[in-house]
Amino acid sequence: MGWYERLGQWSDEHRFGVDLTVTLVLAVVFVPASAAFSSGGASGVGTSAGWAAFWALLILAPLPWRRSHPLASSVTVYSVALVHLLAGYLVIFPADFAVLVALYSVTVYGPRWAHRTAIVASLVGAVVLGIALGLLSGRLADLATMVFFTSAFGGMTFLAVWAFGLVRRSRRETIAALVDRAERLEVERDQQAQIATAAERARIAREMHDIVAHSLSVIIAQADGGRYAAANDPDAATRALTTVSETGRAALADMRRLLGVLRSEPPRPATSPTAAVGPGGTLALPSGRSPGTTLRPTTAGPSPYGPAGTDARSPSGGAAAALERAPQPDTADLESLVAQVRDSGMRVSFVRVGESRPLPPGAGLTVYRVCQEALTNVLKHAGPDPEVTVVVRWGATTLDLEVEDDGRGASTAAENRQDSRPGGYGVLGMRERAALFGGTVQVGPRAGGGFRVHLRIPVPPVPPAPRSAPAPASSGDTRPAPGPGHAHPPNPWAPPAPAPSGRMGPGRAGPTGAPGTTSPPPPPPA
Q1: Where is the sequence biased in composition, kind Pro residues (predicted)?
Q2: How many Cα atoms occupy the beta-carbon half-sphere of 508 within 13 Å?
Q3: Is residue 198 part of a domain?
């Protein structure tokens, strides 16, 4: 910003003080000059210096308010000019320049109708002044000449000042519009940041609730079952502890993956203390332990989350690290979710109706989380030994998920607490997830007992099957074409069909034993 812009900004901030100072300086010069100009008879017949000074002081008095109150200041200046013109003081020079200042001020700072009215009044005043000066000469020829020159000179002067004021007004409006736009953009940016922050916090809260609530419910159920079965069935207690360990690892991996997006720097690799290798491949204990005690690797059963007690950086312990880098679950993982809940001792049936197809990003996770929350609520509220049914129904344009149970916990609690709210944060999270994709969630007790959760979200329609033209039969092929009710027998050498879940199934080992490769079938014997 240059000195001129800074000076203009300072002048706008101190309008009355600056205008008052300028007016006082002009009054010191203009009032004596106007009195001297009128004493020679230039203002009209019978004029005096005292009255000229009075009119000059009166016409300059409203100028300190020309920017703070432009309309009132301009009306006062024009009124004083008209009154002293009718009083016989035709021109009070140079005090009458205040009329030009008033016209400029009302054009720049006043309303639109005010400056349009001011320019019309100025042009009319120029004509009236010409007529008055012509009548003062007493000759008709001088009247026409005086009216023409006075109107032309005064009109051009007023129009020039008005045009300059319009340019200044346009610049001020442009600057004000830019400043207002910048302020609105800044406010909108802050609002968008707040909205994004609130949405991200809600998403993290939903994920944390689903992960922690489901995992802890399974862990508590397994821990209670293992404690009761430890005395009579040690194998069942061992299986329960294994499920607790696997569920805890899965929850920890999900939590690390969720909280990893909040870190700005990559995680630092964990450093483990160096351990000496003892006899027989054992690991010597650190100092402070008995010299005869060593740590041996555990030989627990296989687990999909990697063996316990192994380092994630080792080849055998890479499953835990791979679990943290696994993609988010979707509809293809509902069967594994149901199997996990079934392992906790609950009777769960899983039904899939219709042809599954790819979903938009995030929609599969929504279906999975809603099913996970519904099964978690069954674990917590359905009572002892409930029977649960999970139905996934693929429609033409919708996907329906229904989770029903015949427990008595939810219906009894609803009957005992009629004034309770319909759901907690879990139900709220399910509805928020469904609303993100234009879906709905219906939650409530079933008739006759139990609870029901119904999710419906829109999905892309089923793509039409491509119509392939029939291939012409070869000359050596004498087999008849299959009729409407006949089909060729399946080819025993055809490669296996892909997995229905949409994921890549494990490839069969080829002749060289390389995993994931498929060897061509041998030719049939001649």
Answers
A1: 458-469, 481-499
A2: 10
A3: no
Nearest to 148 by CA among 122, 130, 121, 128: 130
Rounded CA gap, 460 and 30, in Å?
84
481 φ/ψ angles, rounded to the nearest 5 degrees: -70, 145
In this predicted structure, which of 56-65, 125-134, 258-267, 438-447 has the lowest mean pLDDT? 258-267
Q: What are phi and psi of 452, to 5 degrees?
A: -140, 130
Q: Which of 458, 476, 502 is the last residue of a domain?
A: 458
For 225-346, strand residue ranges (E) read 283-284, 294-295
Question: Is residue 318 scored above 70 in pLDDT?
Answer: no
pLDDT band for 43, please (50, 70, 90 cuts).
Answer: low
Alpha helices in 315-408 (DSSP H): 318-324, 334-343, 363-381
Dist CA 406 CA 388 (whole Å): 7
* pLDDT cut 90: percent of the chain above it: 27
- Report how far residue 258's alpha carbon sits from residue 270's, in angstroms, rounded to the nearest whole number: 19
* Buried/exposed code over 116-129 (b: 16+ C-beta within 10 A; e: otherwise): ebbbebbbebbebb
Identify the CATH number of the domain in which residue 366 sits.
Answer: 3.30.565.10
169/73 Cα distance (integer angstroms) = 18
Pinpoint the alpha helices (H) of 97-138: 98-109, 112-137
Residue pLDDT, tens place only, 285-294: 344 444 444 3
Lookup: tokens for 493: 């050498």
In this predicted structure, the answer to whether residue 512 has a pLDDT above a threshold of 50 is: no
Mean pLDDT of 347-364: 88
* Pairing label, strands 398-405, 451-458: antiparallel
How large is the greatest C-alpha to C-alpha distance in the chain, in angstroms?
A: 141
101 and 65 Cβ atoms separated by less than 8 Å:
no
Give the pLDDT score at 120: 94
What's the number of domains the chain is made of? 2
pLDDT of 484 reads: 44
Backbone angles phi, psi at 184, to 5 degrees: -65, -40
Burial 496-521 (b: 16+ CB within 10 A, else e): eeeeeeeeeeeeeeeeeeeeeeeeee
Phi and psi at residue 350, to the nearest 5°:
-120, 125
Q: Is 163 inside a domain boundary? A: yes
Which pLDDT does position 257 carry in this prediction? Answer: 66
Comparison of pLDDT for 305 and 263, the residue scoring more: 263
Show which of 174, 190, 206 is a domain's final residue: 190
